[in-house]
Structures are given as structure tokens and as C-alpha cells.
Amino acid sequence: MNKSHNFWLNTWYGGAAPWAYLLLPLSWLFRIISLLRKFYLVTFAQQSLPVPVIVVGNISVGGTGKTPLLIALVQYLQQRGYKPGVVSRGYGGTAPHYPYAIDTASTANEAGDEPLLIFNATQCQVCVAPDRVAAAELLIEHGCNIILSDDGLQHYRLGRDMEIAVIDGVRLFGNRRCLPAGPLREPVSRLRSVDLLVVNNPQSPQPLKYPSYAMQVAPAHWRHLRSQRLIPLDQLTLEKNFHALAGIGNPQRFYHTLESMSLSFQPHSFADHHQFKPADLAFAGESPLVMTEKDAVKCSAFAGDHWYSLVVKAQLPESFWQTLQQKLDLLQDLHQ
To answer: Residue 66 contacts by C-beta under 8 Å, 6 or more apart in sequence?
Structure first.
């Protein structure tokens, strides 16, 4: 993993770092600038769209597990007759133009890893652009009748009808400070205003003072990278101390999942959104290598014979889906 990235994560989440107090004035300045920016965008620049918009995001830097939730939301909407579209910044990719609508020929280098993963998992329309409003407008032109924003909780120019925030139930908010002294893009109090709060793998029944829903991201099956064939979890035998690769915001979450499956492995961590090259994975040789689905979209083109990804699925309580449906019914009435 990138050493500077690891250094900051350890500072924010790893415990006391007395020197970090020196960054508090910068954190206060960051909060002031963020508040002014939010006020300006919401008051003078926010653009509403003719269809419902749901933002799925977080208030912290680093992975919280929102992509499995977003995939589950898209599939839920598809099953109920909606035609959802997903907009994303497309971080980690450089598209030939923006807004860029992903298709079956798109690569992670063009679209970014998370948008391509969402497209592959759901076959819904996904559009990437720094300007999420422009991306959403293109999706509406293509017939989408509800928009989900992948991240973008702080992209206030995009008007929204519903906000869903995802919290890492293990790391929570670190030292609870805003950047750069801490990992937060906005203070914890921001969660008071979201519509639904989801805690990924909570370590206690109610780790927050705000009402929330517990989410578990559970293994579903393996995928053989070369053939894209799905393999039941109990039908793949992995040698002891095989290689495990994670280039995500919180690699430990992936490793903990593998450990929960009683697997023993050698971990290899890379920075989030790392653009993999064959040389990066030379350590695997002919040994089995497993990785996240997010990493797999960047490695499938040069995959070895024994490379696999772990396909996971978000599991949420029925009360979450009931509340979501109630809010969707209200939104449909507002947009008719």
C-alpha cells in the first residue's frame, strides 16, 4: 500500500498522535470553507432533476462498503420495475470524454473500477463525469427514471431527494476530526440530516446515537477471473497460505472476510484505485490468488489460471427495505 496513504490512516484511526493536534487549525479552516461552499451551492447553484435522486455516500475518507449497498439498491429497484441509472465521479479512470456512458467495451482505465463493477453486477446504465448533474441528465435522456449517485454526499450541486450514508462499523469515525487532522469530510453531526444511515458490520448493536440499520457484506461465491465462471464457495479448494490481494480503501475488511471463512493466506495490500499491471502481481507465480471484485475488473485481462475474485452481497434487515419503499412511494408522488 502507498506509504503516505497508510501513514495517514494510521494517524486517523490508529490512536493518539500528539503531533496531529498541530493540524487542528487547518481542520477548522477546512470546516469553514466546506460550510461556505455548501451554503453557496445549495442556495445558488443546486440543480433539481425531474426524476428522484438518491445519493449513497459517506462522511469519511476511505472505504466504508457503499458499493455492495449501491448494487443491492439498484437490484431492488430493478425488481420493482424502475429503470435506475448510476452516476459516479469515475475516480481512477480517464474517459475519452465526459459525461461518459459505460458499455460492454468499457475498461476500468476509462470508467474507473467502482463504476465498471456496478455496471457488470447490475447491467444498469452507469455514467461517469466530474459533473454529476451532466451525467444524470444524460441518463435521464436515455430513459432512466430514478438516479443513484455513487458517493457524492458532498457534491451539493446535484439536488437530491434522499441521502443514504454508509459508516464503517469497525473503524467508525477514527479520531472524529475533519481533514487533515482526521478522516472526516464533514462533522459527525452531518448524519442527523441524512434519510437512512447504514452501518457496515457494526461491532455493537447501536454504535451511533443516530438511528441506523446494520448491514453485513457476506461472501456469495467465487468468480474465476479468466472464464468469469461462478463457483460455489464450498467447491473451491485453496492451498494454505495462498495469496490475497486488496487495492481498496480498507483492505483489512477483505482480509477479515477471508479469515471468517477459515482461510489462511498471504496478504498483499495496494492503494485504493491502484491501476494494476502484470508485474504488480508477479509474486503470485502459479499459486492461487484471490482478490476483491473491485480489483478483478482491472486484473481480468491478464489473469492467471488460478486467479479468483470473491463475490459478496449486502445483507440488510427487512425494516430497511420497508422504510426505503415508504420513502420511494412519497418521492413518486412528488415527481408525478
So the answer is: 56, 57, 58, 150, 151, 166
Q: How far is CA 311 from CA 50, 203, 257, 291, 297, in A?
A: 35, 23, 11, 9, 12
The pLDDT score that the predictor gives to residue 264 is 93
- Are residues 168 and 250 in contact, defined by beta-carbon separation less than 8 angstroms? yes
Contact by Cβ (8 Å): 67, 293: no
Taking the C-alpha atoms of residue 58 and residue 184, their distance in angstroms, rounded to an integer, is 9
CB atoms within 10 A of CB 29: 12
The set of cell numbers assigned to 291 is 482478490
Between CA 179 and CA 25 the distance in angstroms is 10
Q: Which amino acid is at 262?
A: S
Share of the chain above pLDDT 70, in %: 96
Alpha-carbon distance of 24 to 28, in angstroms, equals 6
Query: Of the candidates 222, 214, 225, which has an alpha carbon nearest to the alpha carbon of residue 238?
Result: 222
C-alpha cell at 192: 442527523
5-8 contacts, C-beta under 8 A, 24 or more apart: 5/271, 5/272, 8/180, 8/183
* Cβ-Cβ contacts under 8 Å for 32 (sequence gap 6 or more): none
| pLDDT digits 0-9 by tens, 72-104 | 999 999 999 999 999 999 988 899 999 999 999
Q: Is pTM, for the whole model, over 0.85?
A: yes
| SS3 readout for 24-62 | HHHHHHHHHHHHHHHHHHHHHHCECCCCCEEEEECCECC
* pLDDT at residue 240, as a whole number: 81
The per-residue pLDDT for 171 is: 86
Counting every residue, how long is the chain? Answer: 336
Beta bridge partners of 242: 265
Q: Which residues of the chain have pLDDT under 70?
A: 1-6, 15-16, 204-207
